[in-house]
Amino acid sequence: MSASAPIPPTRRRKSPPGEAQVCLTALGLTLGVSMITGLLLLILVRGVTVFWPQRVTEFTLRDGAGSAVQGNATVAGEIVRTQQRRDGGGEEVQVHIGNKDVHGFNFHWLQSADIVSRSLPPDLIALERLEYGDAFVRPLALVTEGSVPLAATDPEFRPRLAAAVHQAENVRDQIEEIEKDEIGAINRRLAKLELSQKTSPQPGDPGKKAALQADYETLAARARELRATLASPSLQYRLSTGDEKTVTAGEIVRFYYPNELGLAGRIRLFFERIWEFLSEDPREANTEGGIFPAIFGTFVMTVLMSLLVTPLGVIAAIYLREYATQGAVVRIVRICVNNLAGVPSIVFGVFGLGFFVYVLGSKVDQTFFSSALPTPTFGTGGILWASLTLALLTLPVVIVATEEALAAVPRGVREAALACGASKWQMIQRVVLPSAGPGVLTGVILSMARGAGEVAPLMLVGVVKLAPSLPIDGLFPFVHPERKFMHLGFHIYDLGFQSPDSEAAKPMVFATTLLLIALVVVMNLTAIIIRNHLRKKYAASTF
Amino acid sequence: MVEVRDFSFYYGAKQALHRINLRIPEMQVTAFIGPSGCGKTTLLRNLNRMNDLIDGIRHEGDILLDGTSLYDPSVEVISLRKRVGMVFQKYNPFPKSIYENIVFSLRVAGRNRKSELDEVVERSLRSAALWDEVKDRVHESAYGLSGGQQQRLCIARAIANRPQILLMDEPCAALDPVATLKIEELMHELKKEFTIVIVTHNMNQATRVSDRTAFFYMGTLIEYDRTADLFSRPREKQTEAYISGLFS
Asked: How many domains is chain A partitioned into structurally?
């Protein structure tokens, strides 16, 4: 080849090398983002529309229609969805017909071919009841004992019914207060008295017990009296299918005229229902009512878990990074800690049950609550053990994040602290830890996000379908770490897969999911705001 | 007064200092100069035993502070560092307020009386010529200050606990000429109260601020004399070559 050989022309490229890969990265990100937004949107839409009041349609069916409800030609209910039949036999409509006490089911499929006409009768009333869920009916009269029944057409009817429902609600609240708080307190005092009599040889004061019994009787009698007032007045109504029924005002949670409601009324009802969902206890095997105990349980458990995991993780990380001689042993320990994060969470649940509940819990019971045995106090699942189990589960996250944060503290400030005459501990405590604070909080945020959504281990160490009381309440000593609790994650599972009426529970599943996400977001946001505040306080120097 | 006697120092197998002999007089500024890696910073960091942090170090010979060996088992490294303050090359205030930065050395010593701390803050900031600039915001973050102010804050912090000796490891290396000038002026004031040892790469700075200068090369003390004499009539060829800029 001669030295003067011409340089071969380079092949022209349409784009610089590697552009194709850039496309791939963009594609990956787009895919991820759209999947997440899709998921969130689905949950948001399905979760929020649950609370929006629907119109109630009355269907008239042709004679002898196969899809009629118990042979009746008319039926009323909220339309859930309309779809093509899989077997190609035309369209079908799913209707929430309610009135489970009469029909035995809540949802029904109507064949479009059977439907002769649809109407939105304004006199239809929707009842939300304490039992058997919703009812879509025509009111007939309000019956009060010892007076003339008030016809539904009377202008006085609606305010009188509203007043009766409101009055019944107050009475129910009073009964609950008596039964839960006052009688509960007497029961606890009685149990305590009996325990002390069991343990001490000399007989206790019999008068004390008798006095408590008498108190109990008075309260129980008052509750009985109040309960009796709930029997009247009652509402007579007729179903679209023709059956006539009566319900006491005490059984009605709320009533409204779904086809008369204007936009403002619907919006008010919408927010009323959301508030009820957030603040009330569940009813009807959790498919109705609110989920306040689950929200509260999840919140308390997550906070308790963070309080347990943060000091533990930070202390472990300080030793690992600052004090331990960096060598083979520390390297192995670090690998083990990192791998701990990959252990399936159910394994932690089994450990929590086997160690915390059975070993630690029964030891605590034997030492401090021996008089209550064989009834376990701490020797059974509870919020403390659940939080500890989750703290263990999320410990690696905090340790790793704290170690990174400690390593990132510049050598300069460490040396400056030592040069000022600080001991190593003073240096760590006063200079290194505050600088590492935001990094530590990042670890706590990650662990909270992981812990709040964990369900599997909790099922073994203290979560229940329905907890009778909250882990924190007004009763001394206010915090009850031994109590079982409800959890949003478990609630979702329970609603969706353990409920007798899964169709009725479906909207609640979405609403609860939305709430779980919202709760995690709110708690994370709080931690992030604290972290940003710290960051600003210790803002890194710039030129 | 500091006396370095036959002092050799090793990082693992590598010898960084070879039998150094040196007496640092009180209430004067002594400058250590020399090319990078000559051992001047190593010697400085041995004066408050900052090198203890490094694994695998070893020394021979001795360093005496007022007649007592720094390495005497009865000497606590924490109390030593209270007597020998230090200012670093890159200004390194703590992520705290200006006030808390200065009182840090008092707080770690368990002195928390408010009136005393207030007094120390004002005195130290005045000594570091920073009081007028920051007196209205001593409770704000130290990171809000400019680079030169942060370095002067570090000086104020180092002198807050009234050490005998102040070590300065290239204190102006990260600063602009104006800030450098301020620190140099400050040193003239500070030497009335403290014995100062400064490591510097800048020979002009050594001539401007120091009373005595030690020239190090390859871990050996080549020449140590009054600054004026060393720069005008160096006795050693290596010193002359270095100060005239033949190598660095």
From this structure: 1
